[in-house]
Amino acid sequence: MKVEANGETLNVSGIKELGAANSQNFRDEVKGALSDKQKNIHIDLSETLFVDSCGLGALISLHKTTCNRNGTVRLLNPTPPVQQILELTRMHRIFEIVNN
Amino acid sequence: MAVELLPASRNVSLRVRLQCDLSAVRPMTALVRIFLQEQHATPDEIQAAELAIVEGSNNAIKYVNGEGRGKDIDVEVVAGPDQIEVRIRDNTPGFEWPAQIALPEGESENGRGLFLINSLMDRVNYFRGRGQNFLVMAKKRNHTGAGSISHSETQRRLNDSESIIRDMAEELSFCYESLSAIFRCSAELGKSNNLEEFARRLLSDLAQITSAEWFVFRTSQNETQLETFVSSEQTILLPALNISETANKSVECEAAVAREDVWFDHLNPLKSGDPLGKILPDSVGLVHPIYMGETLVGTLTIAKSAPGSFTAVQANVVHTFSDFLAIQIVNARFTEEQVRNRLVSRELEIAKTIQRSLLPKTIPRLSGYGLAGFCESAHQVGGDFYDVIKINDDSLLLIIADVMGKGIPAAMFAAILRSLLRAVPEWMNQPAALLARINRLLFEELSGVDMFITAQLVYVDSRNRRITAASAGHCPVLLSLDGDGNIKSISPEGLPLGILPDTSFSNHTETLSRNSRVLLYTDGLTEARNSAGEFFGQDRLIKWFKHSGNARKSAEELKDDLAAELLAFQSTSTLNDDQTFLIMTE
């Protein structure tokens, strides 16, 4: 996983899976990387093939963090299976999902 | 698409056991994914099952406590033709599965697992137990596959279906034709009972249905020979075949020995010397050996000229027809045998009745003498009988006879003999002349059917204490003329009745003394056998007769004695011949 700061935004990419086994680490790592400057988190899901309910929980947890900073979480280019789960659980109503 | 993988037609299952650790969940679902791919599940089916298993397993691990932490979790995935079922056994205390599963409020971090399971799977059941619970989830499978079907694919499937329907219709029409032929021929059989004609009609129908040009149906004789029963070629003589000797050149014998169909065509032609080769050159056909259980009933050969051939459906029709024909033949043979057995036993019954009716109901009395007669019929009843005719107050005629033959004819001759003997009372004191007369009268009838009669006549004159005996080839008369036990065996000369048209008989006269006894008998007595195969024999009979005078018994008592003696001798063997005797005591 790669975490890069870019101005007010923290870019996260290279996530293979987001499930029960790694979601806690993922959450802690991203939150740890946030400096005071950053209020938005962009998460690249183009390499993510699997997300479960724990992964969704971690994404929501990050969403709450950005809300507190008047920022947003953006999900970029999710793969079709992940897109399907996001829609099924109506995450598209919470996150901004961007397909380039 | 030329080839399409389809789900297995039966259930295939994968069982996995994992440690109670979240890091074990994904390696486990990787195995599930491979398994489901092998079972040709669609990507959607695999994704749904995989996520549902992850959610179920995560819960099994997250909510475990106490002893359950050390226990493994079992996951079973069953891929069937219609659904994929997943069973997860966990060791948590369990929980109440909610009646309604709603999506949690937008920003709640938990509670989406059950929602996902419920949304992705078509059926979910949660069975809560003591210390372990089962989550059972099923996903219906989609056979037609995802995505749209192209026009050419639709056309191909349509063509396939049409071809299948055409094959089925052809098979159905063969079945229909077979059935109606079988019914038609069965109805004919009911009318005529001519099995050969029935077989010919049935097989002609078969030939027509299968477009065959000739057939030969042979039946087996004792499983060693094949004889032609019917053939389409009535002008061609087909000799009987010895199965074991001709198996190497006759395709029919070859099939009978191999117990399976043998096909012949240009690649596997009839051998030179095969009688079937005479029928039609370049024939293509098959020989079907017909077995009922282990018994060879016969063979059916059916053929047409090259390059024709029989299809699998036609071969099936051939099998159906020949099996049906075999049943008819076996049944007919069985019925025939039953009828024959019934006729034989009925005939024996009639003969027995006639024979019984010939024996005197009461034996005439002669002052100063006692008389008793015995007649025991064998199973295959013969023509033994005895008679006592009273001539006047002082005389009577003793008769014992054995008609050589069985059944009704023997009984009929016995009846005729009895009447002829009674017809001329004035001849009764001349037994030899009486026998000569009867021989003349009966000769033609007896010799015409190769039968003959042995008879013994004894004229008893009580006033002059004399007996006169004459014999037509019969066993001797035994006489005990004094009380000292001296036995005299007398056998006057004379051929059996029915041997020569003119034959003379001689009279033998003896004078009776006080306490004398006379025994007339048939050879059924002396030829009685015991279980060791020994004959009762004349010596044994004479010995018995010699001692029979000791106790001064009545004729009736002596009869019972001798009957008991015979019974004891042959107690364990069955009667082969009638046993008849007549005893007179003074």
Tally of distinct domains of chain B: 3
* Helix share, percent of chain A: 25-40%
Query: Biggest protein-protein interface?
Result: A-B, 23 and 25 residues
For the residues shown, what is the average pLDDT of chain B? 86
What is the average per-residue confidence, as pLDDT of chain A, rounded to a whole number? 91
Any idea what the CATH architecture of the largest domain in chain B is?
4-Layer Sandwich
In total, the number of domains of chain A comes to 1
What fraction of the residues of chain B are assigned to beta strands by DSSP?
A: 15-25%
SSE pattern of chain A: EEEHEEHEHE
Structure write-up:
The complex is a heterodimer of chains A (100) and B (586). Chain A has 100 residues and is α/β, with parallel strands linked by helices. Chain A has a single domain, classed as STAS domain (Transcription Regulator spoIIAA). In chain A, 36% of the residues lie in helices and 26% in strands. Chain A has three helices and seven strands; from the N terminus they run βββαββαβαβ. In chain A, strands 1-2-4-6-7 form a five-stranded mixed β-sheet. In chain A, strand 6, helix 3 (80-88) and strand 7 form a beta-alpha-beta unit. The two termini of chain A are 21 Å apart. The relative contact order of chain A is 0.19. The mean pLDDT of chain A is 91. Chain B has 586 residues and is of the alpha+beta class. Chain B folds into three domains: 12-140, Histidine kinase-like ATPase, C-terminal domain (Heat Shock Protein 90, 2-Layer Sandwich); 175-334, Beta-Lactamase, CATH 3.30.450.40; 359-585, 4-Layer Sandwich (Phosphatase 2c, domain 1), CATH 3.60.40.10. Helices cover 38% and strands 25% of the residues of chain B. Chain B is built from 13 helices and 21 strands. In chain B, strand 6 (214-221) and strand 7 (225-231) form a beta hairpin. In chain B, helix 1 runs antiparallel to helix 2 and helix 4 (151-192) runs parallel beside helix 8 (312-358). Chain B is elongated and about 145 Å long. The interface between A and B is medium-sized, with 23 and 25 residues.
